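Before anything else, study the sequence and fold tokens given here and see whether the fold suits the sequence. Record follows:
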Amino acid sequence: MAAAKLCRQGGFVLHFLFFCVACAFRSPLVAGQESQQDGVQTLLKEASQRIKTKQYGDALDLLNTAIDADSAFSEAYLQRASVLRHLCRFKESKESYEKFLELKPGISSAEKELSQLSQTHSALESAYKLFESGDFSKALEYIERVVLVFSPGCTEAKILQVKLLLSLKDYSGAIAETGYILKEDENNLEALLLRGRAYYYLADHDVASRHFQKGLRLDPEHSDLKKAYFGLKNLLKKTKIAEENAEKGKLRLAAEDFKSAVAMDPHHTAHNVHLYLGLCKVLVKLGRGQDAVNSCTEALDIDGELLEALVQRGEAKLIVEDWEGAVEDLKNAAEKSPQDMNIREALMRAEKALKISKRKDWYKILGVSKTASISEIKRAYKKLALQWHPDKNVDNREEAEAMFREIAAAYEILGDDEKRVRYDRGEDLEGMGMDMGGGGGGGGFNPFGAGGHQFTFHFEGGFPGGGFQGGGFPGGFGFNF
């Protein structure tokens, strides 16, 4: 490419020299001057063609040749000023404009362009300051609406534009703009680096790696390209290790590996969304419910449509007994994928758990664990029944009667092996023809029914539903009061 450019430039110089030689053979001075003018006009015309096709470097070479041939050729200065402005070579451009106005004072169009040059230079400086301060959108406005309007060939401004697009996470835009730069100069290292980063943040890692590698072939010691290339390699390596440990069942190791991979580049959301999901799945298997909820929430914050993250978060919420949250997540997942039987089964489990959570916890009422033996249940019932018997709680009789009914109802379920099994399975026992802690008397459960030794109880004012004299406690625990 460089050789071809030199050939083109040499051709134009030889073309100009041809006119000079021709002048030497024409003895009249006027003929020589006319030929010289023809030569520089030809160079000017060729330069104009290069400007139209945005070949600013070639155009500048032609214009410099023309000015060397005729230092008073004002039009060449004007065109050179314009080309230098296009390339953001503001100081040189200003000098050429001033030289033109020295040769042709008072030309308003040139004065206007000189003013635009100053505005463009100021806009580029402002864009850099805004970029440094983090106001990327405003900086991009300066570049697109001012700098690249008046200096469309300014590679410096185009590179800054790409950096701003990356900062604004417009990765597709960055890829498009670097494509234009590389079309003009396929070996532009900065463009290769930025284009690779854009593909990287889109998680197109293979393409990103190819751009970094091409840049390193051109300059093996380029520090930013080396950092980008080896950073990507290490990230993919750590991700692979985490996934392999998860597959092998090495869950604790996998969890730490997933966390380490996320920490390598917290801003790489397109890749981290899968790391967060992998971490969530591992944490669910480890029974670390709240950590799993947090990890899946991170994934869903990045991609709200990630079905598997929604399902896993539902499973995690079951672990932490957030029944309503689990039902909500799994219901949303079922709506997104109505044919998935695994999701439907998980939703049914969550709905059952929610329903169970809303019923009375008889174990809690008796103050025993869910693994308590029948003897432990009987002892707890005996103790609480004595504590809350209405005759022993004259000053708070209504509260005592309510508590006494609850205790009796709890024992009715947990003291019966068959009913306890059904209750533990989540079955609804409300329709068993018994009062589960509701009003007393009538057909309700009588905690003093027959069975065991008979004792007499004297209730001042009578038990709700009418006074009575009953037998021992259920299971034969008789007491005198």
Notes: The longest helix spans residues 108-133. The radius of gyration is 43 Å. The CA atoms of residues 50 and 446 lie 105 Å apart. The mean pLDDT is 85.
